[in-house]
Amino acid sequence: MLGSHIQNGIDAARQVWSRIPTSEDGVEEELLFSTDRNGGGPESLDYEVIENYAYREEQAKRGKFFVWYYVMLKWFFSLLIGVGTGLAAVFINLAVENFSGWKFAATFAIIKHSYLAGFLVYTIINLALVFSSVFIITQFAPAASGSGIPEIKGYLNGVDTHGILLFRTLVGKIFGSIGSVGGGLALGKEGPLVHTGACIASLLGQGGSAKYHISSRWLPIFQSDRDRRDLVTCGCAAGVAAAFRAPVGGVLFALEEMTSWWRSHLMWRVFFTSAIVAVVVRSAMGWCKNGNCGHFGSGGFIIWDISGGQEDYSFQELLPMAIIGILGGLLGALFNQLTLFLTYLRRNYLHRMGNKVKIIEVCLLSLMTSIISFGLPLLRKCTPCPTSEVNSGFECPNAPGTYGNYVDFYCSKDNEYNDLATIFFNTQDDAIRNLFSAKTIHEYSAQSLLTFLAMFYFLAVVTFGTAVPAGQFIPGIMIGSTYGRLVGMFVVKFYKKLNVEEGTYALLGAASFLGGSIRMTVSLCVIMVEITNNLKFLPLIMLVLLISKAVGDLFNEGLYDEQARLKGIPLLDFRPQQYMRNVMARDACRSRQVVSLPRIVKVADAVSVLQSTKHNGFPVVDSGRNGGSLVIGLILRSHLLVLLQSKVDFQNNSLPCELEGGPISSRHYISDFVKPVSSKGLSIEHILLSDDELGMYIDLLPFLNPSPYIVPEDMSLAKVYNLFRQLGLRHVFVVPRASHTLGLITRKDLLIEENEDPDTLELQSTSMSDLYCNGNLASRHVQSEQQPLLHSLLISD
Amino acid sequence: MLGSHIQNGIDAARQVWSRIPTSEDGVEEELLFSTDRNGGGPESLDYEVIENYAYREEQAKRGKFFVWYYVMLKWFFSLLIGVGTGLAAVFINLAVENFSGWKFAATFAIIKHSYLAGFLVYTIINLALVFSSVFIITQFAPAASGSGIPEIKGYLNGVDTHGILLFRTLVGKIFGSIGSVGGGLALGKEGPLVHTGACIASLLGQGGSAKYHISSRWLPIFQSDRDRRDLVTCGCAAGVAAAFRAPVGGVLFALEEMTSWWRSHLMWRVFFTSAIVAVVVRSAMGWCKNGNCGHFGSGGFIIWDISGGQEDYSFQELLPMAIIGILGGLLGALFNQLTLFLTYLRRNYLHRMGNKVKIIEVCLLSLMTSIISFGLPLLRKCTPCPTSEVNSGFECPNAPGTYGNYVDFYCSKDNEYNDLATIFFNTQDDAIRNLFSAKTIHEYSAQSLLTFLAMFYFLAVVTFGTAVPAGQFIPGIMIGSTYGRLVGMFVVKFYKKLNVEEGTYALLGAASFLGGSIRMTVSLCVIMVEITNNLKFLPLIMLVLLISKAVGDLFNEGLYDEQARLKGIPLLDFRPQQYMRNVMARDACRSRQVVSLPRIVKVADAVSVLQSTKHNGFPVVDSGRNGGSLVIGLILRSHLLVLLQSKVDFQNNSLPCELEGGPISSRHYISDFVKPVSSKGLSIEHILLSDDELGMYIDLLPFLNPSPYIVPEDMSLAKVYNLFRQLGLRHVFVVPRASHTLGLITRKDLLIEENEDPDTLELQSTSMSDLYCNGNLASRHVQSEQQPLLHSLLISD
């Protein structure tokens, strides 16, 4: 029915695509990937799989062994990602802990003699660390600034931001976050670890980095874009699992926050990666416990154990907890709004002035942070140590710089401690541990907590968006636990009879702020439970999160979504926009002319089309014999460019290629059409063609996707959106209404009946396909009376 | 372009569909629902949403208030589901605990005097409880037998099993599981609780049960099938949350095991429901602690706290843990295979003989269970109590029937206990607690554990599939923890230096058996963590689950999938079958003739089509004016039946209805087209039409879905499958290849540009749509040269 010349072309194409890698899922869908946001340029980074008859037959022939091998390969790579991310996390933690440890040790050693000298040393070390970070980022890996989570989320949604998955970005992220976190800025290392995991996964998936000659010939390349995306999803989960030592939380984070397409099979593999990370991190910590890692071992990996605290909770406490939730929603939404505003200013004014401004900005921030965190505790009057009966197990005062509460800093008397220094002049890890600590009622004064809250909130807002790797989890937990503890203090005061711990409220506060800012729900809940190693407060955390997210949603979107929007990463939401209901498919794409290519296209025409348009895909139309036309498929810009560059398919006349002879498979390798994630694709400007070549022709039939998804012209855009979004498409053809239906596919058609043997069915259908390919079935269909229209179009001459 | 007569009909349809409830998601997709598995009969239970211009415009007009109201309603219902399921769970637990408590108390009181009399009392109470259960199921609620999980999974996948969500099923499930669990059979109450939650959700979603007059006028009915499905998903999560007191586990269970379509917005609501359940259960338990609930309070809700046990684990233990994983995979797969075989026998032979056989079967099983659980411990020689220094905190021997280890049963000496009675002659809850218990090394002899394992495995296999409500979680945990503890005993023996607890291995064993049988991963892991209230062993549980699932997958599918297949519930998997790659869409549906209806159909013709076919949907084709035809949409069988029954749309001539006059909205309520989940739909046999009426006509245009999804004829079935499965469709039209494309929709067309104001766009598009409806745009398109084909088809006269 398609005309025998087309059918023959399909036969000729049989061998070219025989090496397309299979996936365990059977069919490679064309995925949204690589729509570059700098306009529809040629930077499409994946290849759109050609699902043609040859491909399918080859798949069937290849047999079970290859599928098994490919599945094993995926699991092996998941293992590698887990090990790699785990080791990266250990390395970052080790470095940060040691730098911080040395810094505080040096400072405390000096302030015994002079507070001014101590301050100078403290400031200079901070400045040096932060400078190293901002220098790496600005000079070497600009894509490694920030948390990277919006960019990775965009990548998994189908938008490639240039450079986010490069090897240099990975290196910049690791060393940059060591500097910025070690330098005491108000940011965390958890977001960058997610990015790190994603980079590791992506580099493994493409077989290393060619530019830095660390690619390996034996690393097989995943040529399917979906497989690469799955690996990156594993990497994200591994990052969270490593950052928080929260393997289940990592899986849920990848599921809830990062990925756009989720399959339960993937969940199982992501879970495996997380488990591997947990094992790697645990082994490393066991090794470090023996003192092999310097300061590391006492902190670093977050486990803020809050066991030994409040055992139970009563209904009177629900009101203060609701207040914490509301506070979290308000402060979180405000945080999002302020950072959005500042990021906007930075993008449009400050950071346009060049790298020097970025460096100066970060250095000034480092100075300011040092001054505030060192100076404010100096102004604070010390508090006498509590009597020992209330506080069992805690020494007071502690020598500064050691692990524990009640830090002695600038106190005149012996048994006094500085409550502001306990949380402010400390590593963030220890500060949070101190805020979460139980059995330490009245350790902090309301005044200190308020001061700290205001100053740290301010620092976190202004630090966000600077040119250093920066996560928002730890600052969020710091802010949240401060006001949570503040509320807890009032609860302790008002409900004196209850066994209330301020540390519990600090935990709830942390959950509420993260809920109000990042707007995650289930994953955040699990992460909070895992990092505190305590399940008792799960319902409370849930309650607080519900409230804070609901309150925050009244004002703006989640932090990552807002940032993604500002950065111009156009995420496709799960749901279509309201206005789409009123737009028809035809009208949605009417703004631009459809540029169709004929099946046998003149090289000069192809070049001019590629030069004059920026579309990534073109419908290919063959002219029927009675003057009518027939859409025979979709050709991708990137594939067309490969064809133009290789030139082997050029032919002198405009006859279909099967008449030319010569097997196509000898001319192309499938890998020609696959491009690595981390390099730019071909551009039409770089292809030089002689006049002779411009006069030649190419037959596109072997290279096109013969059946892209189609929608009728008057389907509402909302329905089209669902199709596009759910299947992860890049191109949908809008076609006229059909004249008749050839059939109706329902659930029953898609299920093997119980009594039927799948093997028999497979044989049947294969032979059916053969029949069709040999033209027998086609002629049978032609004889039927069901297709008068197309029949007349194609056969009438 | 569609022709003005069609356009006018669309205008006329404007008001009928204006009351279709909106959902927060904007577009109601047509979902897979209600493909009845008894053949394509008329039992379609949802309605396929008519997405036409009128509907969309009405939606836009309705404004934000309605959407807000509808969203609030959904949240309110989630709350109700949480409260309802929580209370149901409390009720079941209370009843089971009290029945079991009385039973054991009575038995132990009597065996002080005579073991024979005690045995008789024990057996008779068990028999009475089990008989009550099987009587309820066979006589009153046959759909309530088994766990219900495969059926609910099928419902969420789009297959409606008759009766699973009725009110009588709910009642039967609750009282049936009290009898079967209280009667000591080798089954659990957790699976039934999932079904209970789903029933509660479904009944709430349809506004109560009409049959039993407990429907309420003020309960608004959710008319969208997707909303109902979402509620049932919430119900499933609530069931798990209530059964295990595992709110996060419940969410993950619903996500991983139950639902087929998942959106992150739904996750958030499911999470809320689970949190509510947790609060309800906790409140009830707090109330019961004061002694208000009889025996309840000491057990019932699962929390097998294993804290105080093993603190750490070493790498030498990985080998025995791997062995546990392998054992779990083997035994779990064997369990699946045996139960599958037995269920097959039961379905095809035993249970065909009627209800009496079912009742006798269950009663015999109860007798056997009683004899084994009472008799075997009698044969066992008692063990001397361990010296007190090893076992701190445990009394030995305990009086039988009390909460604790070391039960004194048929022991001759004073300080002896019966280790088999400790686990066998006990409630399952206490038995598991005893198996998990730490600090009780060498409590059980290998011989006792092996005996118990063999006997209980046998009992669990034969009990599965009988006509009582039965869950597989608790039996699975029992079996798994037994061989886990057995392995643990050997580990204790071989690695004497390590601080190893047998209870930890019991926990891992339980995880491994469930992993090997049910094949859940992430959710099972979280549930295990939540029920043991211990996060330390998370990586170990993960490892064990990975191994046991992988081993089990070598042999067969998961328990629920196997059972669903046997019960003839055709679940659509996420992935297409391998053979589908080689089949074209056209060939997949070639087995049956497409029955198209004309736009203006004669009543007699419609009736004969409905009588002669069992299809659930029919393409509607309008004849173009030059003899060509045009597919204008899809009409559902159920809608056609409603039209035939109401008769108000009958007209005497075959002219399009807009020429007849009379607003359609006065003739139909949207609720006419919605059917409750729990009743059968209309059938063509029940519609009586006179000869006069049979000679009349109906204009179908206002009632059809104008733009169903379409695929080109030669797309591979695998791609069609993806479309069908991902979007949850019921019908896909297979159409000929298009002659030309009207446009190409890409990501950019679906995104509002950053600079554009969405409001403006919405206005624009609305006005565009108006233009189109007024025919202006249509004529503009007619003037363009892009659509020669359709142009000639429709306009050429």
TrEMBL record, chains A, B:
Places the protein is found: Membrane
Coiled coil ranges: none
One cellular-component annotation, GO: trans-Golgi network
Membrane topology: Multi-pass membrane protein
Domain CBS: 590-650, 704-761
InterPro entries: CBS_dom (IPR000644), CBS_dom_sf (IPR046342), Cl-channel/antiporter (IPR051280), Cl-channel_core (IPR014743), Cl_channel_pln (IPR002251), ClC (IPR001807)
Single GO MF descriptor: transmembrane transporter activity
Pfam families membership: CBS, Voltage_CLC
CDD domains recorded: CBS_pair_voltage-gated_CLC_euk_bac (cd04591), ClC_6_like (cd03685)
Gene3D superfamilies per the UniProt record, alphabetical: CBS-domain (3.10.580.10), Clc chloride channel (1.10.3080.10)
Keywords: CBS domain, Chloride, Chloride channel, Ion channel, Ion transport, Membrane, Repeat, Transmembrane, Transmembrane helix, Transport, Voltage-gated channel
SUPFAM superfamilies noted in UniProt: CBS-domain pair, Clc chloride channel
Chain segments annotated as transmembrane: 66-95, 115-137, 231-254, 266-285, 318-339, 449-467, 473-492, 504-531
Domain of life (superkingdom): Eukaryota
Chief location of this protein within or outside the cell: membrane
Similarity comment: family membership: Belongs to the chloride channel (TC 2.A.49) family.
Name of protein: Chloride channel protein
Organism: Zostera marina (Eelgrass)
Taxonomic classification: Eukaryota, Viridiplantae, Streptophyta, Embryophyta, Tracheophyta
